[in-house]
Amino acid sequence: MALQNIGGNSDDAFYRYKMPRMVTKIEGRGNGIKTNVVNMVDIAKALARPAAYTTKYFGCELGAQSKFDEKTGTSLVNGAHETAKLAGLLENFIKKYVQCYGCGNPETEILITKTQMLQLKCAACGFVSDVDMRDKLTTFILKNPPEPKKGSKEKKAMRRAEKERLKEGEAADEEQKKHKKEAKKKGTATTSLKDGTTKASSSKKKASGSDEDRTSPTHSQVDEKEEDDEDEDDDVQWQTDTSAEAAKQRIQEQLSAATADMVMLSTDEPEKKKAPNKASENGNLVARKTLTDEVKENMKKGISAKQLQSVLESLSGSAQEKMNALYEGLFDGIQKGFAKEAVKKKSYLTAAIAQDEGSQLLLLRAIEEFCGKSNTSAMKEIALVLKALYDADILEEEFIVEWYQGGLKGGNKDSQIWKNARPFIDWLQSAESESEED
């Protein structure tokens, strides 16, 4: 198919933007004669404009009736018109409704303002061109606006929906696998282990085979045997002893000798809440130090995000203290480049907020506390860190804005962390308003 340049220099063979040459066909005779633009659909795709716009433009300029059939993709203009004449009108259409008035690039999109005015926004230079509203085609475009492009907010929603669908599919697979194991399970034997856990394995009887059993097995029998072996491995279930003594024993084994004495477990619940004193504050500081050291120690071992989260859950302390310790343990000792490190360690942060949406606020407060500990570099990069976690779908817009507004209402308006975070908050709110206008 012969191609030609969309605007620009027609002799430039290496011009990036091209469209197919127009092909027309005269149909009918007498008063019913019509001109059919055979490849109007291909031309419209190259111009990124609806084929109905170009067909209507021909009718407005020629003073003839024109129609584009969406089902068949047929573009008809009443009367017999030469291809060269229609090609010239198409060039005028490109100059008015496709090319940027600033740089001449055809990579533009049509915008309709609140005052019902047409504009062309260029994706190359960002220039916004005002279309002459005296042209007849503008009325048709206002009545038949182009389909809006999906914004970043809709794309995020689609990604979240896709993640939810995958989670539901995995849960269904696990449920089906569980039913399959229960159907084949005949008995369980419980074996006590040293560390306070119990192992349940299915007991299967081995019977002596006959002469027929000693023959070579068929393919189906081999497959069944492999499937039984896999199920036998899957039937092993691990149950953790959650008693106070077992938990204390595990903690002492995991922690080093220097930190083991700092953790104290007690099964006696106080009947009345006591007023906070210096001793309790020192206890919180020691517990936080213990949690932070625990995170650092396990990170050196190279454990996974889920394993680190389970270790934190086994220790005492509030949810906020654990989140503070997690963030401090992940980023302590880093001098600069906190945004890049946040992307590298997003698996740990994702696991930390997976249980509850409210955990996002806990994470934001942990970032706030970490930056407030005289960490100048982290304070300067707070906006970059928030942007990185937002792009990675770890933090959502509503929680970020809620955290920021709550910090301003707390009476710390002049705090440096809010001043540094404000550019990102302004960008979030402006992006939301632009998507709503579109």
From TrEMBL:
It comes from the Eukaryota. Residues 142-238 are annotated as: Disordered. Coiled coil: none annotated. Residues 188-201 have a biased composition (Low complexity). One of its GO terms (biological process) is formation of cytoplasmic translation initiation complex. Catalyzes the hydrolysis of GTP bound to the 40S ribosomal initiation complex (40S.mRNA.Met-tRNA[F].eIF-2.GTP) with the subsequent joining of a 60S ribosomal subunit resulting in the release of eIF-2 and the guanine nucleotide. The subsequent joining of a 60S ribosomal subunit results in the formation of a functional 80S initiation complex (80S.mRNA.Met-tRNA[F]). This is W2 domain-containing protein.
